[in-house]
Amino acid sequence: xxxxxxxxxxxxxxxxxxxxxxxxxxxxxxxxxxxxxxxxxxxxxxxxxxxxxxxxxxxxxxxxxxxxxxxxxxxxxxxxxxxxxxxxxxxxxxxxxxxxxxxxxxxxxxxxxxxxxxxxxxxxxxxxxxxxxxxxxxxxxxxxxxxxxxxxxxxxxxxxxxxxxxxxxxxxxxxxxxxxxxxxxxxxxxxxxxxxxxxxxxxxxxxxxxxxxxxxxxxxxxxxxxxxxxxxxxxxxxxxxxxxxxxxxxxxxxxxxxxxxxxxxxxxxxxxxxxxxxxxxxxxxxxxxxxxxxxxxxxxxxxxxxxxxxxxxxxxxxxx
Length: 320
Ligand code: PBG
Prior knowledge:
Layout: H1 12-17, E1 28-35, E2 41-43, E3 51-54, H2 58-67, E4 72-78, H3 97-108, E5 112-117, H4 139-156, E6 160-163, H5 170-180, E7 189-194, H6 201-207, H7 227-239, E8 243-247, H8 253-259, E9 267-271, H9 273-284, H10 292-303, E10 307-310, H11 313-319
Parallel strand pairs: 1-3, 1-4, 1-10, 4-5, 5-6, 7-8, 8-9, 9-10
Antiparallel strand pairs: 2-3
Helix pairs in contact: 3-4, 4-5, 8-10
The protein binds ligand PBG.
């Protein structure tokens, strides 16, 4: 027999020699939830092992993360319920929840902070932008609010901003306002290819951000579409996005693989709350081996992602 692929599988040394894909802790971004209050570490019911932290608890948590090799976090703010309004104005308040969290973290650490830029956690109706009288999310009126939100995060000390709202033109609006204010070197990681997905369910419980009426299908992408992802990614690159993200990750690896040869920018994939919940609960019940988590993240890398946003970041980093 001439071809025996098993020759390269005989032992771990030869297998590692020919391994095509690897995962480093520096490629992981850990998403975290910040709440109002003091001394709070509250487990998120739909995401066992994930917590909402109050600002004062963050420095200690960040120190632990850095000790296990995590150098990247993504912050989500959960404002007090009385701070919700029609246009989500607490999203860009200088003393808003995310802005205070950034300042507190940066006093103790230089961990790289990316912020999720969106209005849904801050609006009374739970949509990602301003509503017209008929309930339609008004694209163009929302752009300035998103840009203002991004700017306030950067002014508070954020290292990178990540718009997740799916309004058309928001990358250009954010880039223009950051540049105008001198932040020419602050990168934008765009949630360029974000599907209207059922996999965000646990997140919406975590962040209390479910839309009060309707759904997000008039701005997030239709999951029947793959070709459209190429257009969305190309538009965001043209508007100045530095990193392109696909979200969710595991059910959308075809999209990651499809974009990889086209996009000359780094590609990120977000393993979202529903993916976390499914894997973690199956592991917790002993239905599958915990190594399924590493395997799943290798699959995301193999499909072509350079960066993975994942709630499993600490667990992966500990084992790498
Ligand atoms: C905000 C936002 C969402 C997620 C990230 N940013 C929720 C949504 O679009 O409804 C989802 C993250 C996750 O499910 O882990 N727009």
